[in-house]
Amino acid sequence: MKKALVIIALSVLVVSCNKTADVKEVKTAYVDTSVLMKEYTEAKDLEAKYKAQAEEKGRQLQAEITRFKQDAASFQSQAQANGQQWAQQRGAELQKREQQLGYAQQQLSQQLQQESGVEMDSLISGVKKFIKTYGKEKGYSYIYGTGDAASILYAEDKYDITKEVVKALNDKYSSTPKADKPAVKEEAAKK
Fold this sequence. Notes:
Layout: H1 2-18, E1 28-32, H2 33-39, H3 41-82, H4 84-138, E2 142-146, H5 162-174, H6 186-190
């Protein structure tokens, strides 16, 4: 009886070892995110938009700074002629104006950073959704990201689908109506 049980157990073991489980091929790739953001047209347009805004608003502020510098130079030459009391009063006014200009510069910088940050976060979120959909459509099990925040230290070039994704994203972006695209001044687009 023991021999029969051992023979049955061995035959079950042999039969179970002969069955191979269907192993699904895992298709993986990676996208160089820093290259993607440099070559993606929408990201370029967004960058140009905020660069143009910074230049425009910066020119206005620079004009005020230039006037302030002229007033400060004028103050130096008039201080001795108009007396100490006038110099103290005018000096205090100039100091206050200098502080206001400094605050205006900081505020402008923070405003532009905040506005561009919100749009850039939205853009990145859209790119992630696109890559997820792209991966499902192309049958990828995994698509890794590499670039500035590298999660891959090495991968063969044949797994790099960055160019494919950039092309697909740019095709999608170019087919969207202009009303949905970031407003870019013509002069910024020419640069």
